[in-house]
Amino acid sequence: MRATGTLSAVAALTLLWGSSAGPAPATVRVPERPHGHFFAGPVERPTLTPPGARAPEPPPEFYFTRAAYTSWRRGWGTQNWAIDYPKADRIFLSFIARLLPNIDAYDEEHPVLLDDPDLRRFPFLYAVEVGYMDLTPEEREGLRGYLEAGGFLVVDDFWGSREWANFEYQMSRVLPDRPIVDLPLDHPVFSSFYEIDEILQVPNVGQGRAGGPTYEQDGYVPVVRGIHDENGRLMVLINWNTDLGDAWEWADDPFYPLRYSTYAYQLGVNMIVYAMSH
Amino acid sequence: MEQLFAFLFKYRPLLFQEGELALAAPWPRTTAAAVALVVAAVALSTYTLARGRTRRTDRVVLATLRMLTFAVVGLMLLRPVLVISTVQPQRNFVGVLVDDTRSMTVPGEDGATRADWVRAALTGEASDVFERLGERFALRFYRFSDATTRLADPADLTFAGRRTELGEALTRASEDLAGVPLSGLVVLSDGADNSGRPLAEPLRTLQAAGVPVYTVGVGEAVLSPDVQVTRVEMPRTVLEGTSLLVDVVISQHGFAGRTLPLVVEDAGQLVAREEVTAGEDGEPVVARVRFEAAEAGPRLLEFRVPVQDGERLTRNNMREVLLDVRDRREKILYFEGEPRWEVKFLRRAVADDENLQVVVLQRTAANKFLRLDVDDADELAAGFPRTREELFAYRALVLGSVEASFFTNDQLDMIADFVSERGGGLIVLGGRHAYAQGGYAGTPLEDVLPVFLDDESGAPGPYFERFRVEATRAGRLHPVTRLADDAEASAERWASLPEVSAVNPITRLKPGAVALLVGRPERAGPRPIVLAQHRYGRGRVLALPIQDTWTWQMHADVPVDDLTHETFWRQTLRWLLDGVPDAVTASVERERVEPGESLTLRAAVADSAYEEVNDARVTAAVVDPAGDTTLVRLDWTVDEDGVYEGRFTPPEVGLFEIDVTATREGRPLGSDRSYVHAVVSDEEYFDAAMRPASLRRIAEETGGRFYTPADVHQLPEDLALTGAGVTLTEERDLWDMPVLLLLLLALIGAEWAYRRARGLV
Question: Residue A243 sits in which domain range?
Answer without folding.
Answer: 41-275
